[in-house]
Input
Amino acid sequence: MQGSHLVVRGVGMVTSVGRTYADSCASIRAGFVRPSEISDYELLDPETQDLVPLIGYPIPVCAGGFDMVGRWLTIGAEAMRDLIRNIGKQETITADFWRSTLLIGISPRLDAGRLQSSQDEDPAKLVGSYLAPLCRQLDLPIPAQNVRSLALGRTGLYAAIQHARTELEAGRVRRVIVLSVDSLLDSLSLEWLDSLGRLKSDVNPTGLVPAEAGVAVCLDLASAKSNQPVLAVIEKSSSRNDVNEFFADAPRVGAQFSMVLRDVTDGHGDQPFVGPVVTDLNGEAWRAFEFSNARLRQSTLLSDRTSIEIPVVSTGETGAASAAVGLAFGISGLGRRRRAHDRFIVASSSEFGPVGAARVARPQEI
Output
């Protein structure tokens, strides 16, 4: 029954191609791009030995002059403001609204390699250095115990969906806001990606284009009373772990990725899934190899009419925000266009091993 499902009641978003949810999704659908030279990072051209500027997809004006957590804070605040504007169209947001809200912050894994530190950092630190300051900046009276950090990277969204479901069904909170933010344009992240040979350049055409984004999603139970319309229903979600991470010698052959696709497509039915699959493919060969193998392994579960949609073509590689970008983009197309689809799958794979997917549907009343 839809009443027992988790539903999306609001979205806020900021990307390199839009300062709002509506603008970002419209730009992605239209294929807009906004590349820019990253002035403080250059790559060495091995043929000419000249330093050439790196091309990335920064958010104009939004995060200039900030690094790492400061950049996340600026981007996250913009995504939250857009969410608040969109929710405010349907109801007056009072202090009681925030007191019964759980805020989950999805951020990059605090990996020693990316941070260039001796060991991984404690994700709990992000509550004090990032999420609590964000609440103060936006004047959100969310109780301290309702502000939590999941520094799980690009598959953190699927863990947040499960956590939200648990908290909502237990009645501990009224709603959950999942805020996914990342920027791969700070100096430490760029140096880390460059050292692994992952940045796109003339000599590495299968690299990624670094970018940044923030997405805020308001979740609730379909059975709950609310003035907010239901934008989408999260019917199923699944996450698993692939032991062959990007940093291992063995290739990612898509075994675990195919399993999460099976989990969310109802693999025991006779009819294959019809609808787009929104992926986090980003130009890297290993990721394309993994997804292609996963799709082949589950070829009977996906219709020949299934399209593969790749938001990164417009947004660039948005790291820990990529799954939420895919979710928001998929929701924007549910039943609102000619020949629109009723369902879509958002699927993600982390270089650290975890994979995840969710099946999302148009609400029945639309």
User: Anything to note?
Assistant: The chain has two domains: 2-221, 235-361.
